[in-house]
Design goal:
By secondary structure, the chain is of the alpha/beta class. It folds into 2 domains: 99 residues, no CATH class; 256 residues, Rossmann fold, CATH 3.40.50. It contains 10 helices and 16 strands. Strands 4-3-5-6-13-12-11-8-9 form a 9-stranded mixed beta sheet. Strands 1-16-15 form a 3-stranded antiparallel beta sheet. Strands 2-14 form a two-stranded antiparallel sheet.
Length: 421
């Protein structure tokens, strides 16, 4: 048996409501969500032990500002036609090394960007929106690896789409295990066990000739995105408007760009839209790498899609495309023109200066976990092994064995159990 231990003192600081959400806290419900932090601790600490970097060789592309502005076009409308309420659905990542599937950091980044647009408000939803959030939302964006949705949750989503709501699903959102067929009816496509594969995204990707909804207007026919690809997903492609495609290459982790002879030359959907009654849905396979959310090309695609899903103009969102983005300067390096120093750039460490205010802490006094503050994941009880991604590990709520509290520390223990199934 092998084991490792780690400890933490749970203490979270914020300088603003925005930074409170970095720790996964809702603006008005700090203590309500504090029970989820044991999940965070378990996943971050265990993740450092088992997490895999699928394509660690990938590096972001710096874009030419003039070309980005050409693709965007001139902005004539400064604000949306109405107040817009966006719900960003997120969770803690369970499987990946830092820089990949960064659900928390991507939410903070894009929520901060979207709030710069007049009349736009953004609210976070951990794992799934509440009934109240569905009722007031104009757009719901899913970027997480979701737990399988229940019939009641599908019903809330259906009612939302029926009234004309917009949805965006990104990368890991398509992985929902046994309910993939139902997910595909709403998101357009979904992971299909035994059929779907993943691997590095080949370069280049191809824009569909129709260029529907203006989402790829003025993009070159062939363009580069550095990210990951899913193919062989379940769903009815003939019910979608496919916006861009890419072939499949080698399966799973990679060490470099696929060679032409390694590609299947098929046109697998990369981006698409689906209209369900009055509702509008956009799907994005890319979103694996954190730096993708800072790529001006991806921002154009995602922000145009969000505007389309809300039946709004892209114009008010155009300034977000280049804000703190991967833009070349005169020397061909990453520029920082117009950087807002109050807004954390991608990769910034969380600051701990005197302007922070303590909003929540647990010093782990005593010798038992405070179950009023924390909840432990227990796969055996919830009947969800592998978390939809075939993990060779299990989370167990076994205080004294898999974790314990002693001397002001929460200690987590991982056991090697080759005999387990």
């Amino acid at each position: 048996m092998t084991s490792f231990t780690s400890w933490c003192r749970a203490r979270f600081f914020s300088r603003s409501k925005q930074l409170a959400r970095v720790a996964g806290l809702a603006d008005d419900s700090v203590l309500m969500h504090s029970r989820h932090f044991l999940i965070t601790v378990l996943l971050f600490v265990l993740g450092s032990f088992i997490a895999e970097a699928q394509h660690p060789w990938q590096r972001p592309v710096l874009r030419d500002r003039a070309e980005v502005e050409r693709i965007m076009g001139e902005a004539k409308q400064k604000e949306p036609s109405r107040e817009l309420r966006i719900i960003w659905v997120w969770d803690f990542d369970k499987n990946h090394a830092p820089g990949f599937h960064e659900y928390v950091k991507a939410r903070v980044l894009f929520s901060g960007l979207l709030k710069r647009v007049p009349k736009v408000s953004v609210e976070a939803a951990l794992q799934f929106p509440s009934q109240q959030q569905w009722a007031k939302a104009d757009l719901v964006a899913f970027y997480l690896q979701m737990q399988p949705m229940t019939p009641a949750q599908f019903a809330m989503m259906d009612a939302y789409l029926k009234r004309g709501g917009g949805m965006v699903a990104i990368h890991g959102a398509f992985i929902q295990g046994p309910v993939g067929g139902e997910v595909a009816k709403r998101f357009g496509l979904a992971w299909a066990g035994g059929r779907t594969q993943w691997g590095v995204l080949p370069i280049p990707s191809t824009v569909a000739a129709k260029r529907a909804h203006g989402i790829f207007d003025r993009f070159p026919e062939k363009f580069t995105l550095v990210d990951e690809h899913y193919w062989g997903l379940g769903g009815k492609v003939d019910e979608l408007t496919v916006l861009a495609t890419a072939p499949a290459g080698p399966v799973r982790a990679s060490k470099g760009t696929p060679k032409p002879g390694q590609l299947d030359n098929k046109k697998w959907p990369l981006f698409w839209t689906k209209e369900i009654g009055k509702g509008r849905v956009f799907g994005s396979i890319p979103g694996h790498n954190l730096f993708t959310f800072n790529d001006p090309y991806y921002r154009i695609i995602l922000l145009r899609a969000m505007a389309w899903a809300m039946n709004e103009s892209f114009d008010p969102f155009k300034p977000l495309v280049t804000h703190n983005a991967l833009i070349k300067n005169a020397e061909g390096k990453a520029g920082n023109e117009g950087v807002d120093k109050k807004f954390p750039s991608l990769g910034d460490a969380h600051r701990t200066d005197k302007s922070y205010t303590l909003v929540w802490q647990d010093e782990f006094t005593g010798n038992k976990l405070d179950r009023k503050k924390w909840v432990a994941v227990d796969d055996a009880k919830i009947g969800q092994y592998g978390h939809g991604n075939g993990e060779s590990q299990t989370y167990l709520d076994a205080e004294g064995d898999t974790f314990f509290v002693k001397d002001g520390r929460l200690t987590l223990v991982a056991h090697h159990a080759p005999e387990a199934k």
